Amino acid sequence: MQVGIEIGTGPGGAPALVDLEELLATRLLVQGNSGSGKSHLLRRLLEQSAPHVQQAIVDPEGDFVTLADRFGHVVVDAERSGSDLQRIAARMRQHRVSVVLNLEGLDAEQQMHAAAAFLGGMFESERDHWYPMLVVVDEAQLFAPAAAGEVSDEARKASLGAMTNLMCRGRKRGLAGVIATQRLAKLAKNVAAEASNFLMGRTFLDIDMARAADLLGMDRRQAETFRDLARGHFVALGPALSKRPVPVTIGRVETSARSSSPRLMPLPEQPVEAARDLIFAPGEPEPLRPTPARRPTPAPPATVDVLAQLARHRPAPAAEAPPEMPQQERDAAIDAVMADVLADPDAAFRSIAVLYQDFIVRCRMRRLGEALDLAAFRRRLAVARAGVGAERAAEPEWERAAAVAAGLAEELQGVFLLLARAAQEGAPCPSDDDIARACGSRSPGRARRLVAYMESRGILVCRTDFRGNRVIALTELGWETAPGDPARAAPPPDAPPDLFAAE
Asked: For bias kind Pro residues, which ranges apply (predicted)?
């Protein structure tokens, strides 16, 4: 599903949109000197995308903790052990809670260790929890430095490895890296090179301008324009932004950072002699000014309390509750949403987590709320991939097939229902391509392995007739398919559907 979020205005005052689904697949790099508006840009992106996708922010200065009050992010203080941060990160992915990792108060080496543990916990989470999410890392040059600095090699390697995993291997795990840096020259090249979308702000050093121009496909003369960009003005390029470099002015934000840019204050008015006396005259000892009492820094909450908060977290209720809907009408609406999700030609080959995220967003748009949990979605997806319509699903014979499928492993249910439908209709045995599609794969080899595994478990019996066609019998149902060529190619996307067609 395509979701366009507006980050500001482009040429001619037209809205500058970011394709959120494309951004999740292609990642983003933001570059600009201090004061160019990078943090403002990240805040605008986070605010606009918060209703659509889970977020994790690695915040070295504590600027983004203000998102918690407005958008419900959970703030995680990083002053805890690495194992605690890994556990919190895994629990965050499980419960799909947006989180701000606050690194404020830690020194550079401690920040690198904490960020490495947190990113590693997200990266190593269980496959069932690989939901799409934005992972925003501000001041990325601190965590993926191009050269060794004053920190230990152990901290640098751990942090750099976690950032490399995020940008190079995170996409298959649903992690979309959004990294911001003051200087491209200080950022590790293998981390920066994995981004396909770029927002380049004001920069002055020749080496940074040359790298920015090279990433945007601009010549050296055009690179000089980066010096003239105003605060909050960027040049955008990438599949989620624009096919050619375009200027973008970032829009306003709803929340504000705790820190702000320094502002001028008027000097105290006093005669020169009085100022001289204040500095040089011995005079009487000045009374000691009382030192303002510093409020003690509160201890970070216990890890157990943070984990409990993640488990209890629920999205903020809508301003207006959706109207009550009859169950029959609600089921029909859910079926329609499922059909919309599977209408995409690539839906058969996407992971369960990605399809479920798409399904939940579409349900919210139709005011259906959290229509199905993940387990129920898996079962309904298996039925939908087998092409079973509502009328057939209510037949007593098909209820037998559904009951048998419910006792199988989740990855086998869709294959079993596909074979059951073919056997009940007396249709030819599905090909390896058809079976692979039913389990969300493009590999005929995986289909053959699944069939062999199910046969070894006594779920089905497979035989070949004298023409080389395959016949599959389902043992518990007593149904048998007609002979079918296992090597038959799947129909092209524009061809009429066969077994996958909904009735």
From this structure: 284-301
